[in-house]
Amino acid sequence: MNESFIEFLAKSGAIQFGEFTLKSGRSSPFFVNTGSLADGAATYELARQYAAKIHEVYNDKFDAVFGPAYKGIPLAVAITIALQREYAVNKPWIADRKEKKTHGDASGFIGAEIDAQAHIIIVDDVFTTGETKLEAIRKIQDVLQGEAIGLVIAVDRQEKGIRLSAVEEFSEKTGVPVHALTTIRDVFEYLHNRNIGGKNYVSDKLYEQFMHYRKKYH
User: Fold this and answer.
1) Known active-site residue 103
2) Measured between alpha carbons, how far is 173 from 105 in angstroms, rounded to an integer?
3) Beta-bridge partner residues of 109
4) Chain-centre distance for alpha carbon 57
5) Domain count, the chain
6) How large is the average pLDDT for residues 127-145?
7) Out of 23, 61, 98, 103, which one is annotated catalytic?
8) CB-based contacts of 175: which residues, under 8 Å, 6+ apart?
9) Residue 133 belongs to what domain range?
């Protein structure tokens, strides 16, 4: 369990607790948004945590870090900086555009130019259904002629798929392993009635709501 990262998510507000309506229409007792981390210290700490996971799993055996637009763009940039500072691993970053430019650089990507057959790690904040990740893999394979060798996320929401978990079904379908810095179950288990900086983020009531949500969707 990545306790320091869970505390960081809670104290920074990157994970919020309450009642939230998701894109899917589900009512969730939590919401993860690392895009809210918009200052230097918080962004770097988030990137440092990602860099630690990437270094643990891949060392330097990859060619680039890919961040899906839009939230994945600053994330990919920050992670490559953290990899260089923390581990002396200097890798390029690349991201896609949601809309192609019609003037100047009309490429569908920003960042480094990537060689064909490059081994690329995708980074994003959460995993729910995996739709945006499938699009990223398609672009890496079909447009960049590269290979997505892994997906690193901050929080696995541990949503269920049809037969397996959403993450397991994604990996089975794509062949791309998913590495999460933490899971939502670990977040709730660790924060339940724990005093973090004078605050209890997960009360008994909220924990019960989470267990109900988990029974329904996990």
Assistant:
1) yes
2) 34
3) 96
4) 15
5) 1
6) 85
7) 103
8) none
9) 3-217
Instruction: At 13, give phi and psi (nearest 5°).
Output: 85, 10
- Average pLDDT over the chain, rounded to whole? 89
CA distance 107 to 140: 13
What is the 3-state secondary structure of 3-64? HHHHHHHHHHCCEEEEEEECCCCCEEEEEECHHHCCCHHHHHHHHHHHHHHHHHHHCCCCCE
Residue 155 CA to residue 127 CA, distance in Å, equals: 7
pLDDT per residue as tens digits for the range 28-74:
899 998 888 999 999 999 999 999 999 999 999 999 999 998 889 99
Are the beta carbons of 9 and 190 closer than 8 angstroms?
A: no
At residue 37, what are phi and psi to the nearest 5 degrees?
Answer: -85, 95
> Among the options 101, 173, 199, 212, which is catalytic?
101
DSSP string covering 80-120: HHHHHHHH-----EEEE-SS--SSSS--SEEE----TT-EE
Q: Is 133 a catalytic residue?
A: no
Of the given ranges (28-37, 92-101, 208-217), which has the lowest mean pLDDT?
Answer: 92-101
| Residue 169 exposed, middle or buried by CB count within 10 Å (0-12, 13-18, 19+) | middle
CATH code for position 24: 3.40.50.2020
